């Protein structure tokens, strides 16, 4: 059953079949400093994940590089056996050498290991949405995606997405495997990927902005504050509400390690921005 409010549908079907609530959860913050190591307070981290699902979140985004590996294990420890309808999306394509260190690696064997490792850590028999974290400029994309195609054919992966890509990357990838989602940096203050968002709208793909809570440059501060006060909301809630109104294919994955902040984020879908509010923030 689709969830609809005045701002339109609050659900979206990934790949035209997996209906999810557009306000999801991103697990990256449930790690140590620099996205390295396990969550400092593992029990609280598990409670955050459990409360998210209890509150209606049925889309959780993670990656084998978060920790690395620890985030996927944490999700399984907190939520397995998974409730019916919960979609866990993960990613591969980064190696980690230390805190805040990210090394792109599109080597096919490394991708194969990432997929099998994610299945094991998440305790899944298949991954509903597997995303290539980055395109490796040193390795042909077709080679990188080879083991992904094999995993789809073997039933290990249901749908495939890409992260931080342009239109040419998407078109090249689609000659190898169907692409159902794009995860690029996009928020109220940084809209450089606007053309990609429009492309995904036209194609019926999901668009998953990472870093969605950024509320923009200082020149927007007074506008956001004014609109937030009008809605009795926080600036973060307004940033999320703006994205929900921006396009019906946008899926939000705000992350937090705080139970209170999680509740705040999840209340953003109750905020209905007027066209005037939206235009003021979009300017």
UniProtKB/TrEMBL annotation:
Residues 22-282 form the NADP-dependent oxidoreductase domain. One of its GO terms (cellular component) is cytoplasm. One of its GO terms (molecular function) is oxidoreductase activity. InterPro entries: AKR, Aldo-Keto_reductase, NAD(P)_OxRdtase_dom_sf, NADP_OxRdtase_dom. Keywords: Oxidoreductase. CDD domains: AKR_AKR13B1. It comes from Larkinella rosea. This is Aldo/keto reductase. The keyword Oxidoreductase applies.
């Amino acid at each position: 059953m689709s969830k609809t409010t005045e701002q339109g549908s609050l659900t979206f079907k990934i790949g035209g079949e997996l209906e999810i609530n557009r306000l999801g959860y991103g697990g990256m913050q449930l790690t140590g400093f620099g996205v390295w190591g396990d969550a400092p307070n593992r029990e609280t981290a598990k409670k955050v994940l459990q409360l998210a699902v209890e509150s209606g979140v049925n889309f959780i985004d993670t990656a084998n590089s978060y920790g690395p590996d620890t985030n996927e294990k944490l999700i399984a420890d907190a939520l397995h056996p998974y409730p019916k309808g919960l979609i866990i999306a993960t990613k591969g394509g980064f190696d980690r050498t230390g805190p805040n260190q990210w090394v792109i690696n599109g080597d096919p064997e490394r991708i194969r290991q990432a997929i099998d490792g994610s299945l094991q850590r998440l305790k899944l028999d298949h991954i509903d949405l597997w995303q290539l974290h980055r395109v490796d400029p040193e390795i042909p994309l077709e080679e990188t995606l080879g083991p992904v195609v094999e995993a789809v054919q073997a039933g290990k992966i249901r749908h495939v997405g890409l992260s931080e890509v342009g239109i040419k990357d998407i078109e090249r990838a689609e000659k190898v495997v169907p692409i159902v989602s794009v995860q690029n940096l996009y928020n109220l203050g940084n809209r450089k990927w606007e053309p990609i968002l429009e492309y995904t709208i036209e194609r019926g793909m999901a668009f998953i902005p990472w870093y969605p809570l950024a509320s923009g440059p200082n020149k927007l501060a007074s506008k956001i504050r004014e609109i937030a006060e009008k809605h009795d909301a926080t600036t973060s809630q307004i940033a999320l509400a703006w994205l929900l109104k921006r396009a019906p294919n946008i899926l939000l994955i705000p992350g937090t390690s705080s139970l209170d902040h999680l509740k705040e984020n999840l209340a953003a879908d109750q905020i209905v921005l007027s066209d005037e509010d939206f235009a003021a923030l979009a300017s």
